[in-house]
Amino acid sequence: AGTTADGTAPSAPASLAGDAGTTTVDLAWGAASDDVAVVGYRISRDGTMIATTSDLAWSDAARTPLTTYTYSVVALDTVGNASDAVAVTVQTLPDTLHPTRPLALHKVARSGAYVTFDWSPSTDNVKVAKYYIYRVGRSAPVAVARISRIRIATIRGASYYVRAVDTSGNRSAASGSVRGRS
Question: Looking at the predicted structure, is the pLDDT value of residue 6 above 90?
Answer without folding.
Answer: no
